[in-house]
Amino acid sequence: MPTPPSKTLETFPNPRAGRDYTIRIRIPEFTCLCPKTGQPDFAELLIEYVPDQLCVELKALKLYIWGYRGEGHFHEAVTNRIMDDLVAALQPKFMRLTAEFKVRGGIYTTVVAEHRQSDWRSPASVTLP
Questions:
Q1: Which domain covers residue 81, as residue numbers?
Q2: Residue 30 CB burial class (10 angstroms; 0-12, 13-18, ≥19)
Q3: What is the tens place of the pLDDT at every residue in 30-69?
Q4: Which residues are catalytic?
Q5: Do the domain assignments include residue 9?
Q6: How far is Cα 124 from Cα 75, in angstroms, rounded to an integer?
Q7: Which among 115, 63, 127, 65 has a CA at the least distance from the CA of 91?
Q8: Contacts of 128 (CB under 8 A, 6+ apart)
Q9: Per the domain annotation, does 1 fall within a domain?
C-alpha cells in the first residue's frame, strides 16, 4: 500500500542552531488543479531557508506537497499557503518560496513569497578572488 499524502509537516532539531546556513530544497514535480478548469497545473518549487531551531523532515515535506495534487488553487494562493504552513511549522529566520508554474495558455507564472524574523539580518556577502 503506498503512503498517502499528508498535511502534517514534521520537523527535527536544527543540528547547528548557532550558525546561520541556508537549506535549499527543489521540488520539480509540484501539481495542483486549476480552480477554473480542473486541469492540472505543474510547477517547480524552490524552498530556501535559514533555519532557527527546527528543520523540515523531507519525507514529510514530500507527502505534504503530494496533498495538493487533487486540490484546486490559484498559483498565488497555493504559494502563499505553502509558505504560511512552512513558516508556522519551522519558524525560520528567513524563508523564500519560489513557485515557477509551467506554461498554460502561453503564460508562465512565477510567484515568490518571503518571510523574515523581525530581528534577523542577512550576513554580508563574501566575494572571493
A1: 15-113
A2: buried
A3: 999 999 999 999 999 999 999 999 999 999 999 999 999 9
A4: 34, 41
A5: no
A6: 33
A7: 115
A8: none
A9: no
Total number of residues shown for the chain: 129
Please choose, from the candidates 79, 11, 80, the residue with its C-alpha nearest in 3D space to the C-alpha of residue 44: 79
Position 121 in a domain? no
Looking at the domain assignment, is residue 31 inside a domain? Answer: yes
Residue 25, domain CATH? 3.30.1130.10
Count of domains forming the chain: 1
Task: Name the residue with cell 507527502.
Answer: 63
For the full predicted model, state whether its pTM sits above 0.90.
yes
Confidence class for position 4, pLDDT limits 50, 70, 90? confident
d(CA 97, CA 78): 11
Q: How many CB atoms lie within 10 A of CB 68?
A: 20
